[in-house]
């Protein structure tokens, strides 16, 4: 007989633990961009910022930490200029 595992007993998955270097970040963004979903893109940029350090990224974008979190929620209507500032502060570049 197989042992049943309760979903509540599973550890919560956190993508930020796997975004350790630029290559991982580029691969993650490539997958997200294929979905063509602005909300998913905002959430992914938020994941990347959390992996790199939200406070430092927020300062680099000129946003308050609270506004930064709010702008990168999956249900937020993130403005393109906000997303662009975040990407620039993360030094996200295309890897060939």
From TrEMBL:
One of its GO terms (molecular function) is DNA binding. InterPro entries: HI1420 (IPR014057), Lambda_DNA-bd_dom_sf (IPR010982). It holds the Pfam family dnstrm_HI1420. PANTHER family: SSL7038 PROTEIN. This is Putative addiction module antidote protein. It comes from Allochromatium humboldtianum.
């Amino acid at each position: 007989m197989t042992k049943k595992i309760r979903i509540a007993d599973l550890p919560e998955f956190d993508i930020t633990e796997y975004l350790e270097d630029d290559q991982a970040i580029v691969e993650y963004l490539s997958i997200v961009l294929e979905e063509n979903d602005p909300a998913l893109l905002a959430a992914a940029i938020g994941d990347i910022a959390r992996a790199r350090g939200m406070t430092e990224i927020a300062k680099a974008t000129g946003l308050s930490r609270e506004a930064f979190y709010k702008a990168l929620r999956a249900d937020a209507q993130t403005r393109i200029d906000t997303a662009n500032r975040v990407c620039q502060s993360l030094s996200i570049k295309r890897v060939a």
